[in-house]
Amino acid sequence: MTRAMEQYIRPGVGSTPFCPGCGHGILMGLILRAIEAAKMDINRMLFVSGIGCAAWIPSPHYNGDTLHTLHGRALPFATGAKLFNPDLCVMVISGDGDLASIGGNHLIHAARRNIDLKVICANNMIYGMTGGQVASTTPLESLTATTPGGNLYHPFDLCKLVKAAGATYVARYSVTQPVALINAIIKAIECEGFSFLDVLSPCPTQFGRKNQQERPEDMIQDLIRRCIMKEDAAVLSEEELADRIITGDFSR
Ligand SMILES: Cc1ncc(C[n+]2csc(CCOP(=O)(O)OP(=O)(O)O)c2C)c(N)n1
Ligand SMILES: [Mg+2]
User: Fold this and answer.
1) Which residue's alpha carbon is at the smallest distance from atom 24 of ligand 1?
2) Whose CA is closest to atom 13 on ligand 1?
3) Could you give the CA distance from residue 26 to residue 30 in angstroms, rounded to a whole number?
4) What is the pLDDT of residues 185-216, one digit of tens each?
5) Is the CB–ligand 1 distance for residue 118 below 6 Å?
6) Which end of the chain has fewer CB atoms within 10 angstroms, the N or the C?
């Protein structure tokens, strides 16, 4: 049986390392669908990731050039590759911890320089791979391995952060909005300048387990319920939007 997107999968790669209910596998497939829809030649692309579950999305799965780098340092590697070979379409695919916590300084400066990189942040709101520690994207009061009494701090709004820093294309979608997300990835591929996608990706194993969403389908259902397009959100009050996640394009 031939799998969908088989031609983009590295020969010999069978199953993925992702847990049941993890959104990273969904994202892995949607990125390939976007590359195909954009008619982008994968041989003109370089995929760069840092360290974490999300960093496994391109490497070893994609049958193209991949750089699996250091934790928090995907953007410096990607910047170097783009400067050396400006014809490359350089796509960074990594986690929220990798890009926005340890790598946060690189993120704002790459956006400020508006380098032509396509950055896809698989945001599961936690450090998944290392045991579920709190991240800069963890919601207020959420329980994690390192915040047993609840997270005391507000998370970054990554889209606002990166847009304010100077990025050209900024958007947020969830893996539960696959068509909109594919279209956003196509836009990022076609955009010249720094593009950033904040992609919500459920992690039932580390996040859900501690926050009453243990079954794989619980976090998916929760995202489907909470995500709202910014146009629909515009007519709702602050109270009505209290636990909603606003999605859409937030470009300048
Ligand atoms: C310099 C350094 N510090 C810490 C680590 C340990 N570490 C590896 S991955 C990771 C967090 C990954 O979280 P995220 O990027 O959100 O990816 P996820 O696993 O959630 O997809 C950490 C803290 C490391 N490998 N290197
Ligand atoms: Mg994470």
Assistant:
1) 71
2) 127
3) 6
4) 999 999 999 999 999 999 999 999 999 998 99
5) no
6) N
